[in-house]
Amino acid sequence: MAILLNVVLFLPLFGALAAVLLPRGEAAQHKSWALLVSLVTFFLSLGLWFNFETGRTAAEFQFETHLPWIASLGIGYHVGLDGVALLLVMLTTALGPIVILSAWNEVQERVKEFFIAILFLETAMIGTFAALDLVLFYVFYEAILVPMYLLIGVWGSENRVYATVKFFVYTFAASVLMLVAILYVYFHDGGTFDYVAARQSLQVTPAVAVWLFAAFAVAFAVKVPMFPVHTWLPDAHTEAPTAGSVILAGVLLKMGTFGFFRYALPLFPEAALHYRGLIGALAVVGIIYGALMSFVQTDMKRLVAYSSVSHLGFVMLGMMAITAEGLTGSVYQMLNHGVSTGGLFLLVGMLKERRHTRLIADYGGLARQVPWIATIFVVVTLSSIGLPGTNGFVGEFLILSGTWLSRMKAPGWYAALGATGVILGAVYMLSLVQRVFFGKLENPENRHLQDLTLREAFVMVPIVVLIGVMGLGPNPFLQTARPAVDRLLARMQSAEQHLRQQDPSLREMVGTEGPALALARPPAVPALPSPAEGSR
Amino acid sequence: MVTNQDLLALLPFILLGAGALTMMLSEVFLTSGRRAYQSGLAVLVAVAAAAAAVVAPERSLFAGQAVSDGFSSFVTVVACGGLALSVLVGRGWLERRGIERGEYYALALFATSGMVLLGMASDLLVAFIAIEVMSLAVYALAAYPRRGQRPAEAAFKYFIIGSFASAAFLYGASLVYGATGTTLFSGIARGGGGGLLTAGLALVLVGLAFKVAAVPFHAWTPDVYEGAPTPVTAFMAAGVKAAAFAILVRGFLAMVSGTGVVGGAQIGGALGILAILSMVVGNLFALPQRNVKRMLAYSSIAHAGYLLVGVVSAGTREGRQAGISAVLIYLAAYAATVVGAFAVVAALERTAASPDVDPAKAWDIARFAGLAKSRPALALAMAVFMLSLAGVPPTAGFVAKLSIFRAAVAAQQYGLAVIGVLTSVLGAYYYLRVVVAMYMQPAEAGEESETAPVTVSVAVALAVVAVVALGIGPESIAGLARAAAQRL
Q: Residue A531: its pLDDT value, please?
């Protein structure tokens, strides 16, 4: 089955190369071709989903391919998926056709280049999640910048050049130091860029590990984005075309949180424990700051962009809790955010296509004119604010309870302050719904608007279905993520053990104090017995 | 005694020299005015010389004054590749302006033969001769169009500063000879002579620093790069830089690897400072440039800084292998990219009615506005070159930067690595500005666009292929570079 992952990974790229040959003038051909390629990619990726094993004997990384690439520099082509990477790959391939379909009418200029950029982007995104070689990961991670830069800069709205240059320079600047850290790792793990081997044999002093973690963390924190390095996000989101916003919110931001989960924490667990309080605090600040900023926005896209800052704060908070619940919730919230915020950007894009404005004040009382759009908007909003029964609830509940139960210093404060973000979220999102869809229809231009078209229904139905399925039956998703979560937890526990051997006065830091939720217990991976339990 | 094997090792040099002489003779005797064969012959000679270099036997030549090895072969291939591409650019550019002559190609071939010899030199005097062979030809090339102010000014500046650098080099070589009684690199490695040797080596390095355009010996670069005819600028950026770095690496390694050498570490430290200055100053000065040709000139200073990082790393025990191969990979990647970029600049250059008209506006970034609409292929190529110069994957520039910084980390030069990556962010900003202009700004009104000459398009296409191939599958080049580094 290993070949399947490679096919899923490179199919969009080859689709993009083939699209180069199609005639420029035939916009419809380009649209259909891109849709076809992304649909085939999605159906093939379902094969990954159904063949992934989560049992006790299952390998950590599945569908692995390991080939030499630049052997004389020690760089290999090594790809494979664990549960978390699989979920994010599925999110990417599922959003692919949705994004392409949503851009059907919006993009009128340079249609050919637009869809080539989208397909190129899809390969780079899947590659980022599938890579198991540090340089290969970096290559995909950086290769995303170019098509995204063009998407915002060429097809964006008025202030696009400023936004896209800011986006590029911010993320490029943040990630170059990670390259130096990767090179340092190479010379201290026996000379390999291979992630699995590096994780095993990395030998660095704690003082150096703190710097290396910082280099990785800065790169990922900008991508997440965490407060206070989030300022590129509102601009990029606001100026990007709908498809760009959806990809940015749906997948690109996850590359930051995934980076923490896959690279920064497992490679430098002790340094991660060192920085945990700081990152957790920044996450909480991000939650509240993002929510407050959302509340005062007059521009719909900007509002949703700031709500992303708030939601990604939850993801980071759950990760820093370093409990089974927190980590699981964090992974789940990555998916939720991709679905619901992606959905919100799609809906905002539909309104904008009809009225050519993003200002909230230009709308009002639309519920009568466009009942279907309004209904779906409300559903997605409820998911975004975490109403029980929707996917958002599962993620936020796991994160907050995981934080509450965690052995951070003052976990109650983190959880309580984080929980205010849920309330603020309800306030700004519901007030958005109210100002756009309810109240009096005062602007005459809003009187005759088309409701959901068939194409748009095809775009939105998968989102709504996912919101319901992931809200009511989260288990398949949680089970898929669980082995990876348990492994990370075991790794963190052995780091804690190591620290406490050196300094017995240290208290326990990983896992929960009391009996945990049934969701994530007992450990699914007996192959890696947690050292903390052994010592008791 | 010169044996057949020696001749075989020197074959690239001989081919280039013979090609140049043939070109000059044919220009005299064949006066039909049809000159298409000349560029074809020059490309053919370049390819043949590169092929000869690949199969050249490894041996010591001229009683140890030169050596043919993997390193010299690699440099020869890069120089010949730069020659072939810039000849293609030159053909179209010169023909449009009606100034195509055999001498142009002859001078380029002579210059390349000097570069090839420079890649082989393991003796200060041979190095000096090679530098002069190369430089005299390039001075003449810079002034090639003869009419017009800028080429003359550029050539004059280049000549004066170049003579000064040569004089410094020669004076240094004489001091080294006085101190050690030999000009062989192997003799330098034995050391002795104390302060006199140090002074001599310092002067030699100053001479070379001028040639590679490292800050603070860079002041000539922007004016010369801007003023010289664009195909010549491409040739200078690709070939002259490669050859100068080849001799710098060989000489510097001899200085630091010897047992009794004075202050090998200090020399490394001095080069490290030059590297930092070049990266910072080159990038900072490139930032405000609106003239693309001048921006590329400043960026070439910054790239000299990155290359110096590799050289410094090669001077340490841990980073020796990684450093040498990184410099070679970087030279190959930079040559392909920069020739391509200048080829695009040449393609966009207006053919002025009279050469006395100042063409500075021809290189303004406004010329690139809307290029993605009017000429999508050219714009795409330029975007690839800009991303490669900025070091964004998956291009050659990324692999090159990766190997340079890998060498720096191997040599535990963390400061150089961190300054290197941070300054490369500045680079991303000004390279992107060209992409912004091409893809995100409307074209200037009333801008008629001439189609690019065929040979220029061919050169651009070849360069794009090279840049992307090096970015995606660099193993063949990286393997060759590593083999070359192991033998050096």
A: 45
**Chain A residues with at least one Cβ partner in B under 8 Å:** 68-73, 110, 135, 138-139, 142-143, 145-146, 149-150, 153-154, 160-161, 164-165, 168-169, 172-173, 176-177, 179-180, 183-184, 186-187
d(CA A523, CA A98): 36
Domain segments of chain A as ranges: 276-511
- State ipTM: 0.90
**Angle formed at CA A67 by CA A62 and CA A68, multiple of 5 degrees:** 145
Q: Are B375 and B475 in contact (CB under 8 A)?
A: no
Domain extents for chain B? Answer: 4-487
Cis preceding linkage at A522, omega within 30: yes
A39 burial via Cβ count (<10 Å: 0-12, 13-18, 19+): middle
Contact B426, B303 (CB under 8 A): no
d(CA A264, CA A1): 29
Q: How far is residue A358's CA from residue A352's CA, in Å, rounded to a whole number?
A: 6
In what helix (H) or strand (E) does residue A80 lie, and over which residues does it extend?
A: strand A75-81
Measured at the CA of B291, the angle between CA B290 and CA B296, to 5 degrees, comes to 110
| A536 contact partners, CB below 8 Å, separation of at least 6 | none
Tens digits of residue pLDDT in A320-340: 988 888 999 999 999 999 999
How many beta carbons lie within 10 A of that of residue B383, not counting itself? 22
B367: CB partners within 8 A, 6+ apart = B292, B348, B361, B444, B447
Whether residue B341 contacts residue B466, with contact meaning beta carbons closer than 8 Å, is answered with: no
Task: Verify whether the Cβ–Cβ distance A165 to B439 is below 8 Å.
Answer: no
Cβ contacts of residue A55 below 8 Å, gap of 6+?
Answer: none
The amino acid that residue A516 corresponds to is A
Residues of A in contact with B399 (CB under 8 A): 70
Q: Which two tokens stand for residue A509?
A: 């830091």
CA distance linking residue B396 with residue A378, whole number of Å: 49
Is A220 exposed, middle or buried (CB count within 10 Å of its CB: 0-12, 13-18, 19+)?
buried
Give pLDDT tens digits for A460-483: 999 999 999 998 988 889 989 988
Residues B62, B63, B69: CA angle, nearest 5 degrees? 70
Give me the residue from A69, A146, A160 closest to B440, CB to CB.
A160
The pLDDT value given to residue A530: 44
Model confidence at A523, pLDDT cuts 50, 70, 90, reads very low
- Give how far Cα A72 sits from Cα of A76, A139, A417, B333, Å: 10, 17, 51, 16
Contact (Cβ atoms closer than 8 angstroms) between residue A333 and residue A414: no
Contact A337, A253 (CB under 8 A): yes
Distance CA A102, CA A106 (A): 8
Closest C-alpha to A334, from A129, A177, A197, A182:
A129
**Using the beta-carbon criterion (under 8 Å), do A165 and B406 form an inter-chain contact?**
no
Nearest-angstrom CA–CA distance, B222 and B288: 13
Structure tokens at B104: 């142009």
**From CA B39, how far away is CA A207, in angstroms rounded?**
60
Cα–Cα distance for residue pair A196/A191, rounded to 1 Å:
13
Integer-rounded Cα Rg, in Å, for chain A is: 22
Mean per-residue pLDDT for B398-420? 92
- What is the spatial distance between Cα A506 and Cα B344, in angstroms, rounded to a whole number? 63
The number of CA neighbours under 13 Å toward the Cβ of B359 is 26
